[in-house]
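In keeping with the milestone schedule agreed at the kick-off meeting, the structural modelling team has produced records for the first pair of proteins. Each record is given below as a sequence line and a structure-token line. The laboratory manager (R.T.) confirmed that both were archived under the project's standard naming scheme.
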Amino acid sequence: MEILNQSEEYVTKLLTENLPKGCLFHNLRHTFEVYKSAKEIGKNSGLSKDQLNILLIAALFHDTGITQNYNFHEEKSVEICEKFLKQNNFSSNEIDHISKIIMVTKTPHNPETMLEKIICDADISHIGKRGYFFKLKLLRKEWEIMLYKQFSDTEWYSLNINFLNENYFFTEYAKITFEKGKESNLKKLEAMLKKTRAE
């Protein structure tokens, strides 16, 4: 679909040129990892081609708002996406649908439709993958730079243990594919917290 290619080009240019340098986790790589995970989950969840395209446009735009406002980036992402889609002659119904999918990535997640469930799963799929702890380091540094938040190791491990305990996968495919990795990462985090508290 041509619009998907145009969306990729637009988002790539936008994030490359306008993303704050402190965005070490929420960056172009993260966007395309979410895009890839959304595609994988979507294809394995029986989506039609049209549904998949709508999902993937939402995935591409879901963090674009960080270029304008870090704390309220979902709302800004919707504004950026809506403007782009209007210029490409999308109907108001399609735009509203995509906007709703983007907004559901705001935590805490409360998805209702299958597409909303898939984007939520894709957005946190890294918690169930190898490389999770590297991404955690990037996020910690990003929050130091962007939010001026400093954490002790104990605080950081506790915060992320809570995040993993409070966030779960909604689709059957994500549960089967990422849940085991999530549990493994959670156990490692708990061991790291225990070790830190013992020191």
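The second protein of the pair:
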Amino acid sequence: METEIKFRMATENDLDSIVAMLADDVLGSERERYENPLPLSYIKAFKAITSDPNNELIVAYAGNEVVGVQQITFTPYITHQGGWRATIEGVRTSTSVRGKGVGTELIKWAIQRAEERGCHLVQLTTDKKRTDALRFYERLGFKATHEGLKLKL
């Protein structure tokens, strides 16, 4: 990319760009509501995330444009001798930068952040329909070692 990508904690002013990225794919378009004004549920979620010291909503930006987002949740476990894990969720990049390495930089940033927080493991999930995403994460060293299950409520 011509402009340097930087990372920071998201602010409420970033929500419009974040929700736009979340809604900008086949799966996201079915479950997100990118409207003006944004539904209150996004603002409530943002406040819950940013008030929790074990959650970080991170944006990637180039100049004044938000071009990527990810949420990192840090969780203590009794297993692994009481170790901490980082879970990466909601990784998206703007269509304007797809294929230009922003997603790779987001994940590398999250891994570094997990190391800074003393985590012994970084985990993530991706929908089985996202075959390109699965290949992307595998190229970054992630291994499909477990079978994940979900129960919609």
